[in-house]
Design goal:
Layout (H helix, E strand, L loop, with lengths): L2 H9 L21 H9 L10 E4 L6 H7 L5 E5 L2 H13 L5 E5 L12 E7 L8 H10 L1 E11 L6 H12 L5 H10 L5 H8 L6 H8 L9 H11 L2 E5 L8 H13 L7 E6 L11 E5 L1 H4 L25 H8 L5 E2 L5 H12 L3 E5 L1
Parallel strand pairs: 1-2, 1-4, 2-3, 4-5
Antiparallel strand pairs: 5-7, 6-7, 8-9, 8-10
């Protein structure tokens, strides 16, 4: 990354959640390496692939990943030492260990050498001088069968922010306080005032700086994004932004139709794979519960358990009967011990990452 990006995040570590802000382990379920590996490879990850890299970790992401993967070594890589210090403190305050915090650049091939079974690069590529080169370097750190999650800005989801950001650069506005003064002086119905009233992100100083004062930002239409993915040599596996269709080709076509109307489903979230084997057949599988859910479904709990959906859509609350069903899989259950109805249900839950489905 450029020195200007490094300086930006040294000044404005992002995000800035309260240090005592907590996440339930059950809400971190989609960051579980074993669940993702089994979904896309049809087997449990081999020992050599049980490593995670958070590329551009910021000040918070190591916490939920450590929560979701107890015992799995995690490397948290970031340009910003203040972000790393805050991320380390967040983990320490919540009793989480096993994370190696590393100051460095993802575009430095000597930083954080692989192989990794899972790499997360959420909101990173669009801040690089050469996003394709960065994506290829991340691909090179993946183990065979490894999974990479990326999020990049959508052209039409970021239209307002980019318009304001470019205007601020032309005006040589470089500090959040200057922007806030401009908002105070703006008319109630002005574009700037409307944006500030509608956006939660700009309510905090680092969020304002990230949204409107970042020195290096790219946005993508779906075709330019998929061209970059194709050039990386990785296989697109699953979109996970809001309302995404389960098939990649159909989702690409849906987004093209939205973009023809200058609309967007939000920023693009996509899982990519390197040499993945594909899921196993349900009727020849063994099912296990995602360990992030094991405690949440145990014991008596009044009412339904609500879990935040992480794959682009909401998930139904788990009532008492659903929790009883999931408890059956705390030990591996072969498909042959399930009825046809139970097998279909277990298969659906494995698509959601609530269960792990692997070959016998």
């Amino acid at each position: 990354m450029s020195d200007s990006v490094r300086r930006h995040y040294e000044l404005y570590p992002y995000p800035k959640y309260p240090l005592l802000a907590s996440v339930r382990r059950c809400d971190a379920y989609a960051g579980n390496l074993a669940a993702l590996w089994s979904r896309f490879n049809g087997e449990l990850p081999p020992q050599a692939a049980q490593r995670i890299l958070i590329a551009g970790c910021g000040s918070f992401a190591p916490y939920p990943f450590a929560l979701a993967n107890p015992g799995v070594p995690i490397t948290a890589l970031d340009l910003s030492r203040p972000s790393l210090r805050r991320a380390r403190l967040h983990c320490l305050l919540h009793g989480l260990s096993g994370v190696d915090f590393l100051a460095g650049d993802i575009c430095d091939p000597t930083a954080a050498g692989g192989p990794f079974g899972l790499i997360d690069a959420f909101g990173v590529l669009h801040h690089l001088q050469d996003p394709l080169a960065g994506l290829r370097l991340l691909a090179g750190r993946l183990a065979e069968g490894g999974i990479l999650r990326v999020m990049v800005y959508s052209r039409y989801a970021r239209r307002e922010e980019e318009s304001i950001r470019r205007a601020l650069r032309l005006l040589r506005v470089s500090e959040p306080e200057q922007v806030l003064q401009m908002v105070k002086r703006s008319k109630p119905d002005s574009r700037l005032r409307r944006f500030f009233e509608a956006s939660d992100e700009v309510a905090v100083r680092c969020g304002l700086a990230d949204a409107l004062l970042h020195p290096c930002v790219r946005t993508y239409r779906i075709d330019s994004f998929m061209e970059m993915v194709a050039a990386s040599g990785l296989e697109p596996l699953l979109f996970a932004h809001p309302s995404a269709l389960s098939r990649v080709d159909r989702e690409v076509e849906r987004v093209r139709e939205l973009e023809a109307r200058r609309q967007s489903p939000g920023n693009f979230i996509l899982y990519l794979g390197r040499g993945v084997k594909g899921p196993c057949c349900a009727d020849a599988a063994v099912f296990r519960i995602n360990r992030c859910l094991s405690s949440a479904v145990s014991g008596f709990r009044p009412g339904a358990l609500r879990i935040s959906g992480r794959l682009g859509h909401a998930v139904a609350p788990l009532d008492a009967e659903a929790r009883r069903f999931l408890r059956r899989f705390r030990q591996p259950v072969p498909a042959g011990k399930l009825s046809a109805e139970e097998l279909a249900r277990a298969d659906r839950l494995s698509e959601e990452l609530f269960l792990l489905r692997s070959r016998e």
